[in-house]
Design brief:
alpha/beta, Rossmann fold, 9-stranded mixed β-sheet, two-stranded antiparallel sheet, 13 strands, 30% helix, globular, binds 1-O-pyrophosphono-5-O-phosphono-alpha-D-ribofuranose, binds uracil, PRTase_dom
């Protein structure tokens, strides 16, 4: 069973409160999602391997460390996952970005694919799939399945809010994928929205509805 990391850093939890608040408008919502994504990226990269390098400081030679290992790919699930990309790229600016377009069918709540454009070398990269909401888990599970079909074998999932149902589905279908979330909420309602959640992440990010 894959591990679930709940990122309970006080800055993340503080900002998440304002993200949830229905009075928070589009501009501020976008900024907060961006900031939380940067903070989550800091945590998600904690296990990255390092290698030794030598540098000359102005005073003396020094043995230091730089990140080694696989390069990163960020894979937002459209639309709402886009809101998390820039926040991650602030810390990992050389990461390549692939896009997977999925929307939930309003009746069945199952994901429908409408777009995919991925870096050519995903099998060599450490991939971070982003989506603010992990509700039924259908969208995330389908996106990860698509990546694996194209050769990916190193995938992490980064969501802001998850429902227990979504975590369970991803864990069941992708036991190798570690899940990073800022909060695990109570449940899904009859429309498969997360309760209490934050509403519709895509609409709040882009000012639609
Ligand atoms: C939302 C959200 C996830 C999905 C989560 O996207 O951003 O992608 O629903 O639900 P699930 O876990 O039950 O699949 P939506 O389909 O509303 O599309 P949007 O991002 O274009 O608004
Ligand atoms: N998608 C959202 O944007 N919000 C939810 O609560 C569930 C799915």
């Amino acid at each position: 069973m894959s591990k679930v990391h709940i990122l309970d850093h006080p800055l993340i939890q503080h900002k998440l409160t304002y993200i949830r608040d229905k009075r928070t408008g589009t501009k501020e919502f976008r900024e907060l999602v961006d900031e939380v994504s940067t903070l989550m990226a800091y945590e998600i990269t904690r296990g990255m391997p390092l290698k030794e390098v030598k540098v000359e400081t102005p005073v003396a030679p020094a043995t230091c460390h730089v990140i080694s290992g696989k390069k990163v790919g960020v894979i937002p699930i459209l639309r709402a996952g886009l809101g998390m990309v820039d926040g991650i790229l602030k810390l990992i600016p050389a990461a390549k970005v692939g896009h997977i377009g999925l929307y939930r069918d309003p009746d069945t709540h199952e994901p429908v694919e409408y777009y995919a454009k991925l870096p050519s070398d995903i099998e060599e990269r450490e991939l971070i799939v982003t989506d603010p909401m992990l509700a039924t888990g259908g969208s995330a599970a389908a996106a990860i399945h698509m990546l694996k079909e194209k050769g990916a074998h190193n995938v992490k999932l980064m969501c802001i809010i998850a429902a227990p149902e979504g975590i369970e589905r991803v864990q069941k279908q992708h036991p190798d994928v570690e899940i990073f979330v800022a909060a695990v909420d109570e449940k899904l309602n009859e429309k498969c929205y997360i309760v209490p959640g934050l509403g519709d992440a895509g609409d709040r990010l882009f000012g639609t509805k």
